[in-house]
Amino acid sequence: MEIENGYQIIGRDWATFSTYPDTWTETEQITNKVAADILKISNLDILAGCCAFNSKIGKTIIQNSKEILTDVEWPLICNQQNIELNYVSVSFLIFEYKYNQGRNDYNWQGYIPRLKLALQALRIFKKYDF
């Protein structure tokens, strides 16, 4: 894909995704499954937080973006605007505990914020009338 023609979603491959705590992977699988169904992209990881696009598409996104969870919203904006979506998975987005210290990622309490994030994503999907 040429960046000038579309929006590139950059996600984690399975080996990389499995470096994350269960509280992340189990809850993100919900959002990823819904996103894959809506956007018609199999094995999609929409929550890695990485993407690429040109300035023209960036202007379209800026004009339409209203959500905090941009990982989910921006591809939906592009889909709604008939901008080509593409997906690639990479191996360099591993979970680094040192950058996530102080959170409850490894016990049951870690599910609370992650489930809230999944619910927020589902609400965004619903706003885009899917």
Number of strands: 3
Provide the gyration radius in Å: 15 Å
The unreliable regions are none
> Span between N and C termini?
26 Å
Along the chain, the helix and strand elements come as EHHEHHEH
Helical fraction: 40-55%
User: Mean pLDDT, rounded to whole units?
Assistant: 93
* Content-based structural category: alpha+beta
Largest sheet, in brief, is: 3 strands, mixed
Shape: globular
- Beta content comes to 5-15%
Distinct helical segment count:
5
Strands of the largest sheet, in order across it? Answer: 2-1-3
Give an account of the 3D structure:
This protein is an alpha+beta fold. The protein has helices at residues 14-17, 22-39, 55-64, 70-80, 111-127; strands at 6-12, 50-52, 84-90. Strands 2-1-3 form a 3-stranded mixed β-sheet. Helix 2 (22-39) runs parallel beside helix 5. The mean pLDDT is 93.
Please provide a brief summary of the model.
With 130 residues, this protein is of the alpha+beta class. The protein has 5 helices and 3 strands; from the N terminus they run E-H-H-E-H-H-E-H.
Kindly list the characteristics that best describe this protein:
about 45% helix, 3 strands, alpha+beta, three-stranded mixed β-sheet, 5 helices, about 130 residues
